[in-house]
Specification:
Elements (H helix, E strand, L loop, with lengths): L2 E5 L4 H14 L2 E5 L9 H6 L8 E5 L2 H9 L5 E4 L5 E2 L10 E4 L8 H6 L2 E4 L12 H15 L5
Parallel strand pairs: 1-2, 1-6, 2-3, 4-6, 4-7, 5-7
């Protein structure tokens, strides 16, 4: 099953919106610390509304702890980055992929991108617009993966 991973997210409402998307799709959400907020943050809870009981949430206090968990499970690391090697639309997703997204301010680190099996980008038509909002990027990437895998019906 697909998994969404947020590495060092900083903005509670973005993470809340992503949690809501993951609840709606039955997708695991992995948060990798340090976080820019407390998991009990009221803005995080508000953005996720009353869907929190339906979120398959996993918190990893560090990237090292997350990597150890991931090594026990199958799947490729697919890093979403403005500098990704291919467009997310041309990439072929697999059911056990881990979709990795970095923080709102800096994205995934160079070492995280190197650890990924593949990197993909969401193309931007306007060169002066660097990226989409994190919660929008997660929704775009997750729903394309789900579309390709036949999970939308």
């Amino acid at each position: 099953m697909l998994k969404v991973v947020l590495v060092h997210p900083q903005i509670p409402p973005n993470t809340g919106n992503i949690a809501r998307t993951c609840a709606a799709t039955g997708t695991e959400l992995h948060l990798v610390g340090p976080l820019g907020f407390e998991i009990s943050d009221r803005y995080l809870k508000r953005a996720g509304l009353d869907y929190w009981p339906y979120v398959k949430l996993h918190y990893h206090p560090s990237i090292q702890v997350f990597e150890a968990v991931r090594q026990q499970q199958n799947g490729r690391w697919i890093g979403f980055s403005t500098g990704g090697r291919s467009s997310y639309i041309q990439f072929s997703f697999a059911p056990d992929d881990w979709l990795l997204f970095g923080s709102e301010t800096v994205g995934l680190s160079a070492s995280m991108l190197e650890a990924c099996n593949e990197t993909v980008r969401i193309p931007m038509s306007q060169p002066h617009v660097r990226s989409l909002n994190l919660s929008v990027s997660v929704a775009v990437g997750l729903f394309e993966a789900r579309r390709q895998l036949g999970y939308l019906e």
